[in-house]
């Protein structure tokens, strides 16, 4: 599951196998990513912060949408992800921010949009992060979040082994200070921070053995089951 390039600050590792998994995961959820960005009005010339960008798969979509007249700030704490980001070509100017979200010094009012995918579920204080994001947005800016509600994770016919691994995954998140049900808590946290017009859109991916989401789930829970159980 890992290789010598893995670094401890990223909870699921930063090896080549994880890079490949994240690329496939992006392809499975790409339509939801693009749809959310389009509804938020991302377009030519916008300044966007990808908060917890990883190796930059969503950032590539954002860069294409904002173009040369815009800019994408890429925030992630992983040195390896930053080496990969620095080697990639984006369709917009980029700014690399190698830091944790909590420690990031974000310019007030500097961004038209902040995007976060599968990151808030790992953060122990989402209220503080929501306040920080609001301060980093220009008036009228948007915060787009894609994250989890683990109640939807299931296979049919039911499998006791799979359900045990899912329980272990949820405990793994909790032990790391995160929350596998963060999507249910986010709307209230956003309102407490001062966001208005909070919109929630549930998305469920389902399919049989040939579907991307089925193959992604099989790879994710197979590759990380031992990590979850050991934790």
Briefly characterize the structure.
By secondary structure, the chain is α/β, with parallel strands linked by helices. It has a five-stranded parallel beta sheet with strand order 3-2-1-4-5. The chain has helices at 16-39, 57-66, 79-87, 126-136, 160-175, 182-193, 212-230, and strands at 47-51, 71-76, 94-98, 111-117, 137-146.
Q: Quickly count the helices.
A: 7
**Strand tally, please?**
5
Using the alpha-carbon principal axes, give the shape: globular
Decide which structural class fits the backbone: alpha/beta
| Main sheet makeup | 5 strands, parallel
SSE string, helices as H and strands as E: HEHEHEEHEHHH
The Cα radius of gyration reads 17 Å
Mean pLDDT: 91
Oligomer: single chain
How are the strands of the biggest sheet laid out side by side? 3-2-1-4-5
Cα end-to-end separation: 16 Å
Binned, the helix content reads 40-55%
List low-pLDDT spans: 1-6
Strand residue percentage: 5-15%
